[in-house]
Amino acid sequence: MTRGQLGDAVVVDGVDKRAFYTEQQKKIAELAEKVHAGTLTNAAGEKFTTVVQIGIGGSDLGPRAMYLALENWAKANNTFKMEARFISNVDPDDASAVLDGIDVAHSLFILVSKSGTTLETLTNEAFVKDALKNAGLDASKHMIAVTSETSPLAKSDDYLAAFFMDDYIGGRFSSTSAVGGAVLSLAFGPDVFAQFLEGAAKEDELAKNKDLRKNPAMLDALIGVYERNILGYGTTAVLPYSQGLSRFPAHLQQLDMESNGKSVNRFGEPVDYVTGPVIFGEPGTNGQHSFYQLLHQGTDIIPLQFVGFKNNQMGTDVVIEGSTSQQKLCANVVAQIVAFACGKADDNRNKNFEGGRPSSIIIGDQLNPATLGALLAHFENKVMFQGFVWNVNSFDQEGVQLGKVLAKRVLAHDTDGALKVYSELLNI
Ligand code: G6Q
Fold first, then answer.
1. N- or C-end of the chain: fewer Cβ atoms within 10 A?
2. Is the CB–ligand 1 distance for residue 148 below 6 Å?
3. pLDDT in tens, 200-211
4. Longest Cα pair distance anywhere in the chain, in angstroms?
């Protein structure tokens, strides 16, 4: 949460936001240390062993992706404290499966909802409270909340503690606030979360550079705008060659598409140019055995964003046929970039590769808290810069409202026409 240079006040509406977020970070660290030391326990005086985050959208995707990115690194570096699980979907199978796989008596739940009103999250909270009650436990001794100070959850007695974020920060930009901070500090310790923030802060500093060649986020943004608006490419693939980044593309989907998938500019006027692309991706090399066929030989050209690391996270590796698995992983990145760019002529049209598929790559030594923070901040800043160029408001998401309103009508049986027909088909 201290993402700028230490000491710089960040004043908004007369409030020093640095002081506010530093205070939240400190409070989270204190709580995490108590949990790890066993001074904050369940009612039986036993240590919590698992942390479960309940939240959806921005209150789930980023924190979940960050947890998965550091889980194995933390285990290999002896800083792993507690397993984390996540409940997001209102599909009852999500909560049931998580609850079945944990020991609720030793679990601490984090309810994350900036607004405190999200239907899925409140439903899942009730689901979890039921499970705790059925196990003879006092739910309020097993739950903390992360929310905004103005939300209905802020002053509730239902939680052991509450941590805050600003209500105007989109959830997709909130992984570095208490939204990600609580679960990451509990799972890996407050120091790991602090290193993650330091990495993000360093990348933010680069994003202030006016020289395009020294500002990777702005450069990446402008390459993306060129691909989208000049070359007319409608999709971008994110291809991290790191198992730890298995959910990173899912987080970027939200970050990018919810921010810049807009048809009006900041003044509400329709735009006469295209804006944000479709984003999708999977970790390499798995993606290679899935959708790369279309990337290499399909009729659409899809720009590619590779991410690669020189070293793996866990230290364990094996030499098979003269190379390590890590070398094989990296060799695949090299091969793919060149294959996409250069292609290969073949008289057999079915075996011909046109090439000309543009790509960029971000290379790190290893995926660790600091590099993960930097990677996250890179993409946050990229999306922000693209929003500036397209002159859209990257920080609202009105496009998600209509579906919510109609779902409420369906649940209230206030339907006609297609709403009624589909409701009947699904037995609602
Ligand atoms: C993200 C969006 C959205 C939001 C969820 C959860 O940028 O605003 O995905 O994070 O709808 O909202 P709450 O945190 O308010 O429950």
1. C
2. no
3. 999 999 999 999
4. 74
The pTM (predicted TM-score) of the whole model is 0.96
Q: Please identify every residue annotated as catalytic.
A: 258, 289, 404
Ligand 1 pocket test, candidate residues 110, 112, 115, 257, most atoms within 8 A of CB = 115
- Report the separation in Å between the CA atom of 213 and the middle of ligand 1, taken as the mean of its atom positions: 34
Evaluate if residue 4 carries a pLDDT over 60: no
Mean pLDDT, residues 6-23 taken together? 89
Q: For ligand 1, atom 13, name the residue with the nearest CA.
A: 113
**Of 7-16, 28-37, 67-76, 325-334, the least confident:** 7-16
For the residues 51-78, what does the mean pLDDT come to?
A: 98
Rounded Cα distance between 304 and 292, Å, is 11
| Integer Cα distance of 207 and 378 in angstroms | 8
Indicate if the pLDDT at residue 2 is higher than 80.
Answer: no
CB-based contact 215:206 (threshold 8 Å): yes
Tell me how far CA of residue 174 lies from CA of 21, 65, 166, 181, 228, in angstroms: 12, 13, 9, 9, 27
Nearest Cα neighbor of 195 from 372, 418, 17 is 372
Q: What is the pLDDT of residue 6?
A: 58
Indicate which atom in ligand 1 lies nearest the CA of residue 172: 7
Tokens 């802060």 locate to 201
Nearest CA to ligand 1 atom 1: 171
pLDDT band at 8 (very low <50, low <70, confident <90, very high): confident
